[in-house]
Amino acid sequence: MSKNPKFYFSLRSPYSWMAYRDLLERYPDVAEAVEWIPFFEPDALSERMLTERGEEFPYSAMSRAKHFYILQDVGRLTKARGLPLTWPVDREPVWEVPHLGYLVALRGGKGPEYIAAVYRARWELGLNICDPAVIADVATSLGLDPVEVSTASDDPLLREEGVEILLRICKDGVFGVPFFVHRFSRYWGMDRLDEFAAHLRSKLAPAGALPATASSVSTGRSSEESHAGGCG
């Protein structure tokens, strides 16, 4: 059992996006302390590779009623936060494109900036983040190699790394995002962020493991299950 506190985030999920913003704005010390791990639904290739490792991704299809609920719920939550929102349209998405691209950005020292830029592209601009051209533009804006970042899903080694992440998702019992883990304690949904932050501070602060403040999020360590605040 890993002692490192973990934040499973998805660039796809509106709830993960809002949890990300709340985490940075309200709990920068917690954001600095957790390990950031991308959560993404596997495409056919990744799913086959995962099956060959003896695991099955914890995913259940979202009903039409739940989809319409999320549209309404996210609208309420973003309005309350004063966040701009433009709903993207996903057509045959390949979530490895943005999430494996993140691994390249992380190695290039631009992990936090990449997350911020991709979230903005998806949720504020309504862009298709599974389009390699969109990810290439993000990479260029961050001074990263646009080809390397936007074609990360074509790299066999990064595919293997992605499958290792999927295995971690399965091992930790992550069935949706945002999802927070610290040893045996698990918290699902943006509405559990306050509890997770209090838990983590109580466990780590006495040992001096949590800084009092943090100016930026650390991501150096490296589905649709939905309720009000928990989304895949």
UniProtKB/TrEMBL annotation:
<feature type="active site" description="Nucleophile">
    <location>
        <position position="13"/>
    </location>
</feature>
<dbReference type="InterPro" id="IPR001853">
    <property type="entry name" value="DSBA-like_thioredoxin_dom"/>
</dbReference>
<dbReference type="GO" id="GO:0018845">
    <property type="term" value="F:2-hydroxychromene-2-carboxylate isomerase activity"/>
</dbReference>
<dbReference type="GO" id="GO:0006749">
    <property type="term" value="P:glutathione metabolic process"/>
</dbReference>
<protein>
    <recommendedName>
        <fullName>2-hydroxychromene-2-carboxylate isomerase</fullName>
        <ecNumber>5.99.1.4</ecNumber>
    </recommendedName>
</protein>
<keyword id="KW-0413">Isomerase</keyword>
<comment type="similarity">
    <text>Belongs to the GST superfamily. NadH family.</text>
</comment>
<dbReference type="InterPro" id="IPR051924">
    <property type="entry name" value="GST_Kappa/NadH"/>
</dbReference>
<dbReference type="InterPro" id="IPR014440">
    <property type="entry name" value="HCCAis_GSTk"/>
</dbReference>
<dbReference type="GO" id="GO:0004602">
    <property type="term" value="F:glutathione peroxidase activity"/>
</dbReference>
<dbReference type="GO" id="GO:0004364">
    <property type="term" value="F:glutathione transferase activity"/>
</dbReference>
<feature type="domain" description="DSBA-like thioredoxin">
    <location>
        <begin position="6"/>
        <end position="200"/>
    </location>
</feature>
<dbReference type="Pfam" id="PF01323">
    <property type="entry name" value="DSBA"/>
</dbReference>
<dbReference type="InterPro" id="IPR036249">
    <property type="entry name" value="Thioredoxin-like_sf"/>
</dbReference>
